[in-house]
Amino acid sequence: MKKKLIILLFLLTFPSVLYVILSVGKTNFIHLQYFGEKELAANGKDTVYHSVAPFKFINQDGIYVTDKNYEGKIYVADYFFSTCKSICPKMANELQRVQEKFQYTKGLVQILSHTVNPENDSVPVLKSYSEMVHADTKMWNFVTGDKKELYDMARYSYLVNAMQGDGGKDDFIHSELFVLVDKEKHIRGIYDGTNIKEVNNLLDDIKVLMAEYIIKENKNKKHEQE
Q1: Are 201 and 86 in contact (CB under 8 A)?
Q2: Would residue 223 count as lying in a domain?
Q3: How far apart are CA 53 and CA 33, in angstroms?
Q4: Given this model, what pLDDT does residue 225 score?
């Protein structure tokens, strides 16, 4: 029994361990790309990457959620609406997989779902929806707010919709995309949330991103000790 437990633990941890082994060598074999525009910093050396803008919305519990709540967190952002009968149920099922896979991180990995229909998706509606999809709201927030602010975040921060719009009555975003955001608010991956294979890639990329931070922290500790 003890031998079987050891084998099981090895199989569960092997992918992450392998990544760390490969990455601490002279060559980094795996590194997630950055999405969005980038520019050279004023010092002429560093690169400034696209980042998610500050935000303030209200969640399913009537509590304000801001970008400050996600400092030091890795999170997956998406856009949905509660009455959607086409792609949103599929997306919710896939986000349940993200929730189940990373619940053990105790808040390091989060999910942030924005409504595209704030006129209908009030706080009570979001609460009912979160219960319907079995969301752990310590990890998974559903937010509403001003439509223009929600849509501007979708277009200019999360890059999920290239079409221009004014956030007005006739403006509507219906996106299947999941966006992976790192601790520094940079976009590190964009995936089709209705595609199981792409969501599998998301799950793997979250592990890669977690490993990147572990490696970075170990390097910093090593430099401090030298």
Answers
A1: no
A2: no
A3: 19
A4: 60
Contact assessment for residue 20 and residue 214, using Cβ atoms and an 8 Å cutoff: yes
Per-residue pLDDT, averaged over 203-214, amounts to 95
pLDDT at 50 over 60: yes
Model pTM score = 0.85
DSSP letter for 65, please: E
Are 73 and 108 in contact by the 8 Å Cβ rule? The answer is yes
Tell whether 126 is covered by a domain: yes
169 — pLDDT class (breaks 50, 70, 90) = confident
Closest CA to 63 of 116, 178, 141: 141
* 73 and 179 assigned to the same domain: yes
Question: Mean pLDDT for the chain?
Answer: 88
Domain that holds residue 175: 47-214
- E strand or H helix that includes residue 64: strand 64-66
Buried (b) or exposed (e) across 32-62, using 16+ Cβ within 10 A?
A: bebbeeeeeeeeeeeeebbbbeebebbbbee
